[in-house]
Amino acid sequence: MVAASAVGAPHRSGRRLSWWFLGGLLICLAGIGLWLLVRELLKPAPVPAVPPIPVVAMAAKTGDVPVYLTGIGTVQAYNTVTVHVRVNGTLDKVIFVEGQDVKAGELLAQIDPRSFQAQLNQTVAAKARDEALLADARLDLERYQKLAAQNSIALQMRDTQLALVAQDAAIVKNDQAQIDYAAVQLVYTAITSPISGRTGVRMIDAGNIV
User: Fold this and answer.
1) CA–CA gap between residue 29 and residue 143 (Å, rounded)
2) Three-class DSSP category at 24
3) Quick check: is 2 in a domain?
4) How many domains does the chain have?
């Protein structure tokens, strides 16, 4: 009985050591596999390859190279003009927009021109009436000059008619001056740009009395 127990003890001890060795080996293999998996997941994405840049040979030549500088500053125009109206009326429409590039003489806004057109028509009609009176006075003057040459009338009548013709001629000239003035006033209803440049802030809208 004693001899049998002594022989079986080493056999069981060797089997226990084998199990421990096998378990440790499995743990090591599992750790290595886990480490490989983590390293693969944390591996950076591959950088795409840059395609080659084509090179074209050409003859060398001289020229201007643009240079751009970026900075903070202020811009001041060479010429600044504030546009004001020159006649009174209702602002019919504003044609330009803020920041628009315009040329000298380009229409910016329009004032209602109807009253100025009526005034011009009135002066033109007045001139036509006075020219008719002047023509009649000149015909009478020709008759009086013939009669005066024949001593058929007093010279005073001829001189009076001569003065009347001069008076009517002066009235016609005054009518022409009134026409010129009314035409200028009508032109002022169209507000134009005095210089070429870029428009700024619009200070008034259509429909206002200016």
Assistant:
1) 143
2) helix
3) no
4) 1
Question: Within 13 A of 132's CA, how many CA atoms are on the CB side?
Answer: 5
Q: Do strands 190-192 and 91-94 pair parallel, antiparallel, or not at all (unpaired)?
A: unpaired
CATH number for the domain including 172? 1.10.287
Q: What is the amino acid identity at position 110?
A: Q
| Two structure tokens written together for 199 | 């428009």
Give the closest residue to 189 by CA, choosing from 117, 121, 125. Answer: 117
The range of the structural domain enclosing residue 168 comes to 113-188
Give domain status of residue 72, yes or no.
no
Q: How far is CA 209 from CA 42, 57, 88, 185, in A?
A: 75, 68, 7, 16
The pTM score is: 0.61
Q: How many CA atoms are closer than 13 Å to the CA of 120, on its beta-carbon side?
A: 13
In this prediction, residue 17 carries a pLDDT of 65
User: How far apart (Å, rounded) are the C-alpha atoms in residues 197 and 112?
Assistant: 26
Domain membership flag for residue 65: no
Q: Quote the pLDDT of residue 1.
A: 36
55-to-28, 52, 58, 61 alpha-carbon distances in Å: 56, 9, 10, 17
Q: Is residue 35 in a domain?
A: no
Contact 121, 115 (CB under 8 A): no
Mean pLDDT split into 10-residue runs, the chain, 210 residues: 42 64 78 78 69 81 87 84 91 92 94 96 96 94 90 88 94 97 96 92 88
